[in-house]
Predict the structure.
Amino acid sequence: MTTEKMTARELKRFYADSTFKKNYIYDGHDLGVSCGGEGTVFKLWSPTAERVELHLYPDGGESGCMRSVSMEQGEQGVWLYRTEENLHGTYYDYDVTSGGETRRTADPYAKACGTNGRRSMAVELERTDPEGWKADRAPERQREDIIYELHVKEFSWDESAGFPEELRGTYRAFTEEDTTLSGDGVHPTGIRYLKELGVTHIQLMPVYDFGSVDEAGDREQFNWGYDPVFYNVPEGSYSSDPSRGEVRITELKELVQALHRNGFRVIMDVVYNHTYSADSPFQRVAPWYYYRQNEDGTLSDGSGCGNDFAAEREMAASFILDSVLYWTEEYHMDGFRFDLMGLLPTELMNRIGRALDLRYGAGEKLIYGEPWAADRTPMEPGFHQALKDQEKRLDPRVAMFCDNTRDAIKGHVFDALQPGFVNGGEGLEREILHAVSAWCDRGGAFRAGSPERILSYVSAHDNLTLWDKLILSMTGRCGRNVFYERPEEVMRAYKLAASIYFTCQGHLFFLSGEEFARTKEGNDNSFCAPISLNRLDYNRAYQLEDLVQFYKDLIALRKCLPGLCDKSAEAGKRIFRKNAGRKGVVSFQVDNRCKEAETGNGKQDTGSGGLCDTLFIAYNSRRRPVKMALPAGEWEAFLKDGDSGLWRRPQRETYSGIFMVPPVSAVIMGKKREIMQEAER
């Protein structure tokens, strides 16, 4: 490799050359540090380096270097140092000389580090396992996946949650399994609250090491964490001691273990599309390799965060794949949510899916992401961005958030005042019908291959909460106090919104606290707002206990409706006699019988398992009752006029003939009967 300093544009051409790809693409999966009884091995991929020096330290702070060694240049751009010593707990960094310039850097392949990632740490991973870790297993998949998006700090920060002060905002808070509201012993919070809610998956917002919080700073610091520094290291600000690399590893494993023990699967939110800064360990060990560049050599910014990770380049793609497999193997993660998946190649997403299926079984690990980007990105020729319009290029089990469903229900996500179906929008009836079948029918804004590909939702960490959106769009008022009022018309629209996406096919996803009308007081981007605004307010959960119960009953009801849980490519055929011909009114029927066929989660669904053979579902967004002729026969009410618990009662209300659908509400009814072949599909 030449020692001549090359420009960004020259390096871009150099990396694209076949000679480089032939000689410098490392095909191993052991970069970083391996540490154990047989000694310690350091491996660093730095193809442009002329010299690499390893420095060892007793801690991750300010202490002086214990010793330095020159690393050996191996093949395929890899630099190597091997010792018979077990260096577990030893901290290290590198001096990398390239183009005549020497840069000090931590290890981009590190699995542990000290405070703020200043130095990496060698770790013997078996020493970090909590008691019983080898026996830890995820619970069995249920008929339906109901995903609950949760931030580690938000989960336990509120004083009313009843967590010990020293555990608030930490991984260890998840190991407290019997917390109650202000310690009253009556009203569950934390893990107990989530168990009673009935969700099946906890999606953790970023828990890898991110750069937007000072790990040595004030505990009240807050950030969502979409600022990756070390992809394979747990975030230190959530640990009891960020200075000790092994502590954060053990405590994150304890979090996963606690969630598994309590019946939840765990999904990890990953951000492989950009890094916190382009002056990163990746850039220091391989200048301009890991970042996309415009034609003029400047950094591309399709992420809107200052840089784009060049995930189509082989060593970047290999890093991401190895990282995903590392989190599944070492931390027992059950799935991954890919931030700005549209900046990643479809080829890489499929590669990840195949690797997980091969190792763990088809569909065992959930994979989904945002099928969009913040802006254009100059992905190299021969690759395709994992955008919504490239859905057919993706493996059938790679799912995506459906913004079409979200916006049809509540209105445009970037226009606070624009209404959707539930809050006064017009001409959206057919959009709602497309949403019901997870956009697998014809004539919609796009067409999905199966409900397995779609996440139906109305709120996530981004943008306005559902409550704030409805308050602003329906009342036209703002000001902090407005969001704590409870206008009846807003509450009816809120329940209607939930009823709609809970009766759509596809996976179900919602933001933590949506079940109690979570408010961020109109802040549509609270990524670095105070924790006092972002924390989960458990007092509100019990102030709005009726709404929480509405969600509990909806969640439980959904699990009893195989016609809506079906993820197969043929699932759309279950929905028939669709009607969207009246303003503000939508109705349809569903074949709700269980079938001896593969469900989307890879399980066989052979039992009767449903409340009825046929469902009748109707949505009325008008502010007055709507007269509707029920299909022939007698129908039992499962949900009506904002009461989602009717189905639980031993004596259900029955209806036939003409039925009045209450204003701004949904109706779910069921009937035992065979589906007629001539039913309109």
Notes: The longest strand covers residues 91-98.
